UniProtKB/TrEMBL annotation:
Similarity comment text for this entry: Belongs to the small heat shock protein (HSP20) family.
PROSITE patterns, A to Z: SHSP (PS01031)
Domain of life: Bacteria
InterPro entries in alphabetical order: A-crystallin/Hsp20_dom, HSP20-like_chaperone, Small_HSP
PANTHER family, per database record: HEAT-SHOCK PROTEIN 20 FAMILY MEMBER
Species this chain originates from: Actinophytocola oryzae
Domain SHSP: 26-138
UniProt protein name: HSP20 family protein
Length: 147
């Protein structure tokens, strides 16, 4: 099971809508990246939107049962020939942490980055999968039920 780690995310989002985004040069925490998470068979799939981020600017770390995704959208090259007309896309570091439950196999996570979407596949741990238990006993222990 995946759990969200930032209970104040909605409050932060509301505050940004009402008060506006932080101005350049002011302190702000790393921006969160939107994600979708769902179970598909024997794995959890988590997709993060990271448009405009190069694959070498993405870091994935797992420590204990915490998965950390960090990405950096870097500014365009500067120079005398470039005059920015509109700059609405946020730049800087984006970060997200997920707590991975004990039922997930953090040793075998796979990652794929295509078309600005980072997709992680986290298998369900073998110990968490349902299994059948065979019941054994002696012949004398069996009882027949008559209808």
């Amino acid at each position: 099971m995946l759990m969200r780690t930032d209970p104040f995310r909605e409050l932060d989002r509301f505050a940004q809508q009402v008060l506006g985004a932080a101005t350049p040069g002011t302190w702000s925490k790393p921006a969160a990246m939107p994600m979708d998470a769902y179970r598909a068979g024997d794995e959890f799939v988590v997709s993060f939107d990271l448009p405009g981020v190069s694959p070498d600017a993405i870091e994935l770390d797992v420590e204990r049962n915490v998965l950390t995704v960090k990405a950096e959208r870097r500014p365009l090259p500067s120079g005398d020939e470039i005059q920015m007309q509109v700059s609405e896309r946020p730049l800087g570091v984006f970060s997200r942490q997920l707590f991975l439950g004990d039922t997930l196999d953090s040793e075998h996570i796979t990652a794929d980055y295509e078309a600005g979407v980072l997709t992680l596949r986290i298998p369900i741990a073998q110990k968490a999968k349902p299994r059948r238990i065979e019941i054994t006993g002696t012949q004398s222990d069996r009882r027949e039920i008559q209808a």
